Amino acid sequence: MASNIKSYWKNYINGEWVDGSDGGRISVEDPAQGSSICEIAEATIEDVDIAVAAAKECFGSRQLADITPARRLQMLMLVAQDLRAHLDEIAHVVVLDTGKRILDARGEVEMAARYFEYYGGAADKLEGSSIPLGDGFMNYTTHAPFGVSAQIVPWNYPIIIAARSLAAAFATGNASIVKSPELAPLSVYMLAKSCERVGFPKGAVNVICGYGNLTGAALASHKDVNQLVFTGSVKTGQAILRYAAELVVPAIMELGGKSAGVVFPDARLDDVVEGARNGIFRHAGQICSAMSRMIVHESRYDEVVNGVVKMVEGLSIGPGIEDHDITPVMSAGQLDRVEGYCLGAAQQGATVAAGGRRVPNQAGHFMPPTVFSDVTPDMTIANEEVFGPVLSILKYKEPEEAIAIANGTEYGLAAGIFTRDLERTHWAAERLDAGQVYVNQWHAGGVETPFGGMKKSGFGREKGQEALLNYVQTKSVTIRTSLT
Ligand code: NAD
Q1: Do 250 and 294 fall into the same domain?
Q2: Which end of the chain is more exposed for a tag (fewer CB within 10 A), N or C?
Q3: Separation between Cα atoms, residue 192 and residue 410, nearest integer Å
Q4: What is the Cα–Cα distance from 104 to 51, expressed in whole angstroms?
Q5: Domain shared by 194 and 279, yes or no
Q6: Rounded to the nearest whole angstrom, what is the distance from the C-alpha of residue 480 to the centroid of ligand 1?
Q7: Overall average pLDDT of the 9-15 stretch
Q8: CA-CA distances (angstroms) from residue 331 to 95, 235, 334, 336?
Q9: What residue ranges in 226-290 does DSSP mark as E strands?
Q10: Are residues 311 and 235 in the same domain?
């Protein structure tokens, strides 16, 4: 299939589209074809310096402070409109560089637009307070922006992850530099295009691409960065936290997960099966909050395994542009990794109920939907993040045991409950160590609901009103008002 996109993309720094300072380029691959579709300029350390200086100048000149909150609201709404006006074009690019199905890509662009709308709507409502001090003094607090916000984005949902940070940062008066993911950078550039068309000040939004250990590290350790927003793996998050410690700047950490859905005896089978389809097989399971484990009561175990396997047998596998259910994983390396976990699970005694080996003779990186039954909590597949279309189904007898298994990994991003019993719902939601709990529908919620992890899944929250507070610092002003 012809990719039908331009063959070379540039970085966006200080309102200009520029080459890498040493002319370097990164090849971008279509995961469904396993071949290069275009190149993108690689930002050097010098380019990082230029981008940070542009953001610093934009913030320091008070251009952002001079844009009233009401105008910021309008500008963010205009970006949302612009994204929707270009939805088909951007969704096409999202399919090409992430491999996901066109239906999901369209949903991703729509959600990116919603972030701009949502944080646009909040831009003129970030109110401070006045603290009573008694006669002779008055106090008020304001929410001051940090200044230069560096945002490092992973490849699975680049445009929505960039959108949620950029929109919140601009709404609160920060200037941003986004480091797009080297494997799937293109849609973040489409976002910069929208900001350019709306007329953001030069330096308010900068988008650069480059490898993590070079460009990413140079940005995260830059002395003029005032706040770090990171979404990605635990290992990289730990590296970035070390930079944050050196710089003494705050960091938001949105990291990985090994999320579990607990199926109680009274669960509706349809909800559970749909939870598996949406929770672990969408975007080939490459979702941080994917339901990679299902913990099923022994009275329903065989029925659930059979129901999930039957659903899986009906899923089509193929390129996202043809809107198949199971789309490719991101890269050859990711395919090796996912298949390696599957081979290891079988060796450790899990039963392959579906899939288990890559789709043979394909140029693209296709892994079939895979279901393991007879998984026990001690197995590697039950503990480590696979980031592929692989579901592990475990069994429990007592509710306390189900909670202990669900909480038994180092992660705490999402968890799910399948039951029709309200008391059981609250009992389990209270005990699950997870930043978000989904009841009877995996991935329930939207841009309005705070999102983030517990334990090694990270800290700080993106999405929702709460996220805005990560982009500001409280300033307290106290005035002596007595006349003597
Ligand atoms: P990754 O950690 O390898 O890379 C993420 C980003 O960090 C990329 O842009 C990369 O270039 C950059 N990077 C890598 N090394 C760096 C370094 N030393 N310094 C600075 N930047 C560096 O993660 P990935 O493979 O792109 O994404 C998959 C991971 O992201 C999974 O673990 C997934 O669960 C997680 N994720 C979490 C969320 C969330 O909201 N919690 C959302 C999506 C993905």
Answers
A1: no
A2: C
A3: 36
A4: 32
A5: no
A6: 49
A7: 98
A8: 14, 19, 5, 9
A9: 227-231, 251-254, 259-263
A10: no
With DSSP H G I counted as helix, E B as strand and the rest as coil, what are the percentages for the chain, rounded to 5? 40, 20, 35
Region label for 324, one of left (φ > 0), alpha (ψ between -120 and 50) or beta (otherwise) = beta
Q: Distance (Å, rounded) from C-alpha 445 to C-alpha 463?
A: 10
Specify whether 432 is located in the same domain as 462. Answer: no
Nearest partner of 152 among 99, 69, 211, judged by Cα: 211
Residues 330, 378: one domain? yes
pLDDT mean over 370-393: 98
User: What is the value of pTM for the model shown?
Assistant: 0.97
CB-CB contact of 282 with 156 (8 Å): no
pLDDT digits (tens, 9 = 90+) for 153-162: 999 999 999 9
Measure the CA–CA gap between 93 and 27, rounded to whole angstroms: 15
Residue-level length of the chain: 484
Mean pLDDT of 183-195: 98
When divided into structural domains, the chain yields a total of 2
Q: Does residue 225 sit within a domain?
A: yes
Q: Which two tokens stand for residue 115?
A: 């972030």
Same domain, 314 and 424: yes
CATH at residue 361:
3.40.309.10
Q: Is 216 in the pocket of ligand 1 (CB under 6 A)?
A: yes
Q: Do 244 and 316 belong to one domain?
A: no
370-373/351-354 β-pairing: antiparallel
Strand bridging mode 251-254 / 458-459: antiparallel
Residue with tokens 């520029």: 18
Task: Please work out whether the CB of residue 259 comes within 6 Å of at least one atom of ligand 1.
Answer: no
Structural contact between residues 45 and 218, judged by C-beta atoms closer than 8 angstroms: yes
Q: Residue 65 belongs to what domain range?
A: 8-255+458-475
CATH number assigned to the domain comprising residue 24: 3.40.605.10
Nearest Cα to Cα of residue 313 among 275, 356, 370: 370
Residue 1 pLDDT > 90, yes or no?
A: no
Shortest-distance atom of ligand 1 to CA 451: 40
Q: Is the same domain home to 248 and 367?
A: no
Could you tell me if residue 3 is inside a domain?
A: no
Decide whether any atom of ligand 1 lies within 6 Å of the 209 Cβ. no
Residue 211 lies in a domain: yes
Residues carrying an active site annotation: 254, 288
Q: How far is the CA of 334 from the centre of ligand 1 (A)?
A: 13
29 strand-pairing partners: 36
Q: Distance, CA 347 to ligand 1 centroid (Å)?
A: 29
d(CA 261, CA 93): 33
3-state secondary structure of 150: strand
Q: Which residues pair with 229 in a beta bridge?
A: 151, 252
Nearest residue (by CA) to ligand 1, atom 26, is 154
Residue 14 lies in a domain: yes
